[in-house]
Specification:
With 502 residues, this protein is of the alpha/beta class. Helix content is 40%, strand content 12%. It has 19 helices and eleven strands.
Amino acid sequence: MSLAGALALGVAPASPAAARPAGDPLARYHHQQLHWKSCLLGPDDAVGKELEQAGAQCADVTVPLDYARPEGRTITVALSRIRGTDTAHRVGALLLNSGGPGGPTIGDPPWVRSAMKDVAARYDVIGVDPRFVGRSTPLDCAWPTGSMIRGAGTGRAGFDRMVAFSADLARRCRTHAGDLLPYATTRNTARDMDVIRAALGERRISYLGYSYGSYLGQVYATMFPGRTDRVVLDGVANPAVYGPRLLRGSEEANRHALRDWADWTAAHHATYGLGRTRSAVLAGVEAARSAAARTPLRVGGYRVDEHALPVVVFNGLSQDNPTAYGDFAQGVRDLRRAAEGRTVTPSPWLASVLEFMLTGHESAYGSAQTAILCGDVPAPRDPETYWRDLRRAGTRDRLFAPVTNNISPCAFWDPPRERPTTIRDDQRALLVNATGDPRTTYRNARAVHRNWPSSRLVTLRGADQHGVYGAFGSACVDTTVNAYLATGRLPAGDVSCPRPTP
């Protein structure tokens, strides 16, 4: 792929003497002048319009592709900023990361400021599209899918198809983005964050990271001690299990979330017609799964097979609210009708999931996500390792275990150039997690908290929610986080928040 256009936006080449001044080989990056401009890219740019209405401006930060060769090739990282208005009580810059990895965050400052309420006036809230994501220099492997995640199927033939599928995705990345892959890592994203800190003129930065963003925050604070102020990690990733197989161990949390959704859906049988009891609703999900295992379901212009259907279900289970539950219920209703041989036009939610999974529309998202995971931590390379894990999981769970234990392109990736970061055990941070989180499980949040005696854990009880602060409507959680952002003082002890009553 050509990066000529992106690289032309970099800082002017420095002289050899200026490129490596004594004491700071990154001086030209740390001291670059940021040129703030409108975030609007065109009349159809919904994110840009929202940022513009919120008073945000955008800029590009130039960073080295390879930090071992800072005088070499450069890439750009895109920022948005809503400046604080209470300059007399200014805290500093609050950098955001919404997870993924590979998720764009440039559009997040408006809603985060809303969650922060009055304390937002004391911060410059900074959205960042990490390297190779969104508006930053892109990494795109020209995939026919937006995700490497698939179910393994029900037998060896299905698993072998997934081996071939994963090997092909890895081959496409080497072909289309091989020059960038070695530099798509969390450690390099953390290095970019420190360039951003310096370019913003900040001695320290505060940070709010969700999901994968919680791991990025841990890596940054470890690599750059003393350069963080207030750190909030929501949906806490455990560095001990982070890597290409990070979903392993989440099966029970997903089964729990599926049961809770089935209870809600049964109570709304008049609307969705999926059954009046939990067991009836779950039986319908299983009927669709088993039908897809026999013959791919025709859903609009898509064919949903045994590899795709479990991922559709998985995608339906991360947000615990009536809107998300209803969208998922409509999608399951469409799948059940397709399993009965009926002609189906997918609901908007299901159509978007299938477009993401079964077309190349979001190839760049899946490419960046996979490159980061594979570039951070090595995965087992022998397909038989995954097959053994799948067989060990057995047939008790035909939905989630075939997804969480399946092979991925990381089995066919070049080994990472750096070892994973060993996270410090003296981190001061406010950790936030829901007990039923099906992505970053509560068990992992507690493990991180145990390893950090100086941290505090805010627990939202009774919710199957991934990402809580500002996203769930818990006044208890939001007030606790905002008090920390306002004062810099962690709570005296851990905080337990009940699920809000409807």
